[in-house]
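seq as requested:
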Amino acid sequence: MEVYYTPPYTNGGIEKAVANLIAFEKTDMLEAGASQTITISFKAEDMASYDDKGTKTYVLDDGEYGISIRSDSHHVIEEDTYTVNQRVVYDENNKRSTDDTVATNQFDYAVGDITYLSRADGFANYEKATAAPASLSISDEKKAEFINNSNYNPEDYNNESDEMPVTGADNGLELQTLRGTDYDDPKWDTLLDQMTLSEMDTVIALSGYQTPAASSISKVQTIDCDGPASINNNFTGTGSIGFPSAVIISNTWNKAIAERFGESIGKMADEMGVSGWYAPAMNTHRSAFAGRNFEYYSEDGVLAGHIAAQSVIGAEKEGVYAYLKHFALNDQETNRNNMLCTWTNEQAIREIYLKPFEIAVKDGGAKAVMSSFNYIGARWAAAVQSFVIPYFVMSGDSGDLCLQIISVYMVIWLPIKQSEMVQMQCWWLMTQQQTMSWTRRVQQVFRR
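struct tokens:
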């Protein structure tokens, strides 16, 4: 059963789609002539649209909302109306119930020199929005920003009054004893004081397909493996059975099957001595030529998000943590490692591209992500502060969730500059060997 909503639209106002999937459920296996009653519920705030130009937050406009059961986004089976009597703005005084910090614009820099299609005046700008670009060159302003982001000089920010954090202290704490401890508990600082600079170096720089051991805090090594449809250890050659692709799983519209899939992955991972799963992959289908569509669930973020959330829950039941990937806006594989710039606006980022990640974190409890390779606007995705600061958009602007995600944030396969490491404040790099001295980079990057 697929439930959609149709929000009220004001000409020239916040852009809104006519049919928006908001919830779905699956019946049991029914014999011919049998029936089953399904109850579906959702919050009114889930129908809010992101207003990136006016209030710069989520808004639930007043008016009549069509709530419909459909066989797909085009064919209505049954429809009713829900009335919102007063406009609701989810600002700093009234954030959404699932948000820890109010959502507000973080990606204005990514809009680019693009005409975005609008419903205003009956899609009056259709021809302009779909016309071939007059120029394929980046503007001088964006070019300067792009160059500046890649040429940060940390020496410019040296401060003689800065003090090196305490390292190598004998405080008697063990990592496992802090399981479940609140992030703001001072014990974490005490624990980190025990680590040596060499251990910090190793934990950050050698986290490819593993999390390294750190004897000072009694942290054991754990093994992480790819991929979305199976578990494969690239070093031992050991692999599990393969499952159908993510597209097939999402096409079942069956959360129970998604959870069972996650459980199966978790059981096989456990048998292989694997703790981390480099999946699920959950970017949005936008083109048939994206190159990774077989790993991604859907063109719809709500469907993808709920299927991914259940897969994460299933794997976690077996003691396996999932890395959501590729975060974020990995729209194509061609030139993905060659400074590919992805241009879009705040509303599209939040309502389309980050929606599956948001649901997987909020409903699935995911606490790890793997970065994408591209740039968001002129900023490298893994170094985008909006993705890693405490009002982290993916986790519904929830500071607590963000900080857990930072602790297992990964950057893979790319040549990393010191400037980009400083910007992203990343803890883990997916590398297998240290080919250069990382000590200076660790000193710049290691932050709690």
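Residues 2-102 form a domain with the Immunoglobulin-like fold (CATH 2.60.40.10).
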